[in-house]
Amino acid sequence: MSSTTSTLNVDSKSVELAVKAGTIGPSVVDISKLYGQTGMFTYDPGFTSTAACESKITYIDGDEGILLYRGYPIEQLAEHGDFLETCYLLLYGELPTAAQKADFDYRVTRHTMVHDQMNRFFQGFRRDAHPMAIMVACVGALSAFYHDSTDISDPQQRMIASMRMIAKMPTLAAMAYKYSIGQPFVYPQNDLDYTSNFLRMCFAVPCEEYKVNPVLSRALDRIFILHADHEQNASTSTVRLAGSSGANPFACIAAGIACLWGPAHGGANEAALKMLEEIGTPDRIPHYIAKAKDKNDPFRLMGFGHRVYKNYDPRARIMQKTTHEVLNELGIKDDPLLDVAVELEQIALKDEYFVEKKLYPNIDFYSGITLKAMGFPTSMFTVLFALARTVGWIAQWSEMIEDPSQRIGRPRQLYIGSPKRDYVTVAQRG
Ligand code: SDX
């Protein structure tokens, strides 16, 4: 990696800062020694201009709407590959040979069951508990079950924990869904592929044979590919920060799930569908566009806008295509929610507010329509996002642990509170 220097003049001091260039994308100014040289911090709430790490996993060009996993365009991976192939790519850095893929599929498949005592955790929840609350709890609970792979300095144990995480998320997600509808848990069936297994655990019932629809399974598998990783987003940064203290990997993933749940992040797919349902019909769109533009109104168009993409989210395009594929397969000729979504997108993309602020549909805008059509309740949408993103969190966590320069993450602050003052007894407080 090449580097040059830049000079920063601050407080009559002049400091030389290294400028490092990556393979592609913006270079960075290395400010790691700035505090030592100037006694000052940088200030960047929300990290809009801050690179927190070096990474080889995912590259996003927000202006061009480009997303690469280990250099491969998302469009090509979604078109030609399957989710477990993408998992292999994100974890190992290369596409697998046929033999490597078969071995990886075999290894993941044989970790799909959870310890049977996990079932008891569900009994403590009310039936109407949000499945994301259940996932935060149950994934965190996994950290209590695997004492044979908690030495994160051992690459072998890190890989076992990674396999277990990728393999058990669908099982736990399906259990969370089954619990919420009062149906018995369905155990994994190892002769099914990863996503077909998940669909069966969600929608099969003991009293009859369940046949996986291959078109829906392929569509959901592609949706998982789209959600697998996304550079240093909020939940991935959460996993990295939690992992930087050496915490148990399952507990770190639980922290990532908690962060993803927020409506500004992964919770946007649930919020976007609720927004489309609230709008209801195309004639009510102008009212909501006006609300989204009103500075005094907290309402935002959910599924629109992105911290990095200032162009169309490439995943949203593939998502839109998948939506039509699923609706056709299910014989849903006209979905009122899709009508509202398509009309809303067309109006927003022509409105100068959205054009000027470069607000485009993101991955969450169409995903809810597809998942609802497949039979998932709105409350499960972010759980499916978490299921898919687990491999990204794990790959980024491993990259951080393996980084020789890795240290505990510990940001500083600009203090604007009270200067030092002496204690006043309650009698003196007046
Ligand atoms: C994901 O980071 C990732 O990579 C995330 C993700 C991933 O794969 O991990 O891609 C997944 O989280 C996608 C984003 C899902 N969230 C939503 O769809 C929620 C709606 N979107 C917004 O909340 C917002 O766009 C964010 C949170 C996504 C981005 O917020 P930023 O980068 O902090 O931008 P901002 O809030 O400063 O907005 C810039 C301007 C503001 O106006 P001004 O103060 O400059 O006048 O655009 C406006 C905002 O008010 N704006 C919107 C808007 N999003 C931004 N106005 C109306 N509707 C919106 N959706």
UniProtKB/TrEMBL annotation:
Pfam families (alphabetical) = Citrate_synt
The protein depicted here goes by the name Citrate synthase
Record's SUPFAM superfamilies? Citrate synthase
The species this protein was found in: Microvirga terricola
- Enzymatic reactions: oxaloacetate + acetyl-CoA + H2O = citrate + CoA + H(+)
* Stated family: Belongs to the citrate synthase family.
**Species lineage, top-down?**
Bacteria, Pseudomonadati, Pseudomonadota, Alphaproteobacteria, Hyphomicrobiales
Its pathway? Carbohydrate metabolism; tricarboxylic acid cycle; isocitrate from oxaloacetate: step 1/2
Q: Which UniProt keywords apply?
A: Acyltransferase, Transferase, Tricarboxylic acid cycle
Q: Which Gene3D superfamilies does the annotation name? A: 2.20.28.60, Citrate Synthase, domain 1, Cytochrome P450-Terp, domain 2
Q: Which CDD domains match?
A: EcCS_like
Keyword Metal-binding appears in the UniProt entry: no
| Any one GO MF annotation of this record | citrate synthase activity
